[in-house]
Amino acid sequence: xxxxxxxxxxxxxxxxxxxxxxxxxxxxxxxxxxxxxxxxxxxxxxxxxxxxxxxxxxxxxxxxxxxxxxxxxxxxxxxxxxxxxxxxxxxxxxxxxxxxxxxxxxxxxxxxxxxxxxxxxxxxxxxxxxxxxxxxxxxxxxxxxxxxxxxxxxxxxxxxxxxxxxxxxxxxxxxxxxxxxxxxxxxxxxxxxxxxxxxxxxxxxxxxxxxxxxxxxxxxxxxxxxxxxxxxxxxxxxxxxxxxxxxxxxxxxxxxxxxxxxxxxxxxxxxxxxxxxxxxxxxxxxxxxxxxxxxxxxxxxxxxxxxxxxxxxxxxxxxxxxxxxxxxxxxxxxxxxxxxxxxxxxxxxxxxxxxxxxxxxxxxxxxxxxxxxxxxxxxxxxxxxxxxxxxxxxxxxxxxxxxxxxxxxxxxxxxxxxxxxxxxxxxxxxxxxxxxxxxxxxxxxxxxxxxxxxxxxxxxxxxxxxxxxxxxxxxxxxxxxxxxxxxxxxxxxxxxxxxxxxxxxxxxxxxxxxxxxxxxxxxxxxxxxxxxxxxxxxxxxxxxxxxxxxxxxxxxxxxxxxxxxxxxxxxxxxxxxxxxxxxxxxxxxxxxxxxxxxxxxxxxxxxxxxxxxxxxxxxxxx
Length: 622
Prior knowledge:
The chain has helices spanning 32-35, 73-78, 156-160, 279-282, 288-299, 307-319, 330-347, 436-443, 446-466, 480-499, 535-538, 542-556, 564-567, 602-605; strands at residues 42-45, 48-52, 69-70, 83-85, 100-102, 106-108, 114-117, 138-139, 142-145, 151-153, 178-182, 192-196, 204-205, 244-247, 255-262, 361-363, 377-396, 419-434, 507-514, 517-524. By secondary structure, it is α+β, with helices and mostly antiparallel strands. A hairpin with a 7-residue loop joins strand 12 and strand 13 (204-205). The longest helix has 21 residues, at 446-466.
């Protein structure tokens, strides 16, 4: 991980330094560049703080062997790109790495208490220390952001010189210097005191700076700053939205917008996409002869694949095309992508019928699936090989990435690019479905519908509060079917982490919950040693799965926080959960598709007062 090049580059002492000649600041794993330290995020390295540069600025580091190309046609088509790239490597063999910029620029010295931009401390080259006191500088703990995704320095000058009768045009021209000190009396914001040596204003604490209207009261609005694209980069369209004060390490500063897809036939061959960049033109031709003429013209008679295979791939693409304009939106197309995965997981893909290069192998277990029928589970499948591509589409600030609209998504580059950062995971999993007849009868029960409606209404209120126009807010996905499958996936992951030795953070859920879908896939979510050793697939054999589900339901009946957990009227963020807490069904956030909301174990096992709420209650004999 390296900062962007300065105007003048220093010569290496031994003359053998890499071409960029930039200092290394630290290392991050490739997966973290997608999920934690992506473009526009803040990263702390020792006592320094940086913002990860945009794809335009980091152009050199996202090229060549350090950022290999990854193909996943279905996801690329959904996101309107040609391909994906793995993040640059950050190991000892890396020649470049991920580019970063220093941010925030405002620093303080714990010795002399001066608060000013980093360069004004005159630090020695390559170090972040006060040129006078020779102690480590402390980056500003506070930044400001808006819901459009912009990020800026906290306005310390305006915060100190905030007298209502003071001429705002003269702020910063008083000739004084800012100071920051802590009184040490408490650990609250009241103990952080800012002052100016001009002597014209009293010192003030940081108390109240996190109020929603704190900066609005100072008549400050967002100026569209984008420091990950450069120190002086601002949004040419302007902004003007309200600013919010955040701590530098807050999760609200940066949230990734991630989209993923499983590689399924006919796109699951391990080879690179032979016709990358040509599909949009090929889709214009429906006749085989026209496709052949195009391939002859482009490849001069030496086709990379056969005509039959090209037509098969084109037919597969057209099957996911929207049927009418109402289905042309991103959400509808993403749902169509899930529908195809669900169909393929149901039908399977036997390994014996394909070559070793096949990246999707889904087989029927050897045991009798009938043993699962009393539980209401049907169609278990052993996913012995799978490949998931997870792409970073954009990012948000202040708003939940799961509930945002495209308007509030900040792109990763100034100019549109034909690729996006992504990670690929090779692993395995277990897929199961719930019996449709039993599920239909259960979800129509008035008590079940009423309980889920409480969660849905609370979740919808949250979504509307975050939207500029409540009428355009994203609809909550909460339905009895969805909440049931979501909670079932969580208890299975928890059970397998106890019984099969998998860390819960190494497993991930993938839900297929809609009117025509009722399945859940639990699969390995990391590419380390827990990825594809066969242990998870073994858990999908019907006899073992039956014992696992029954054990998970017995465990779900009790929580160490009961009776408070089970009887709570609301739980989680803004009441979006019911009987769910970290002691029973919640998972690490990397394992959950919905940020640990819309969970309720009462829908699995019922409550003492209403046992009929539980889908599995009758089958457990309780």
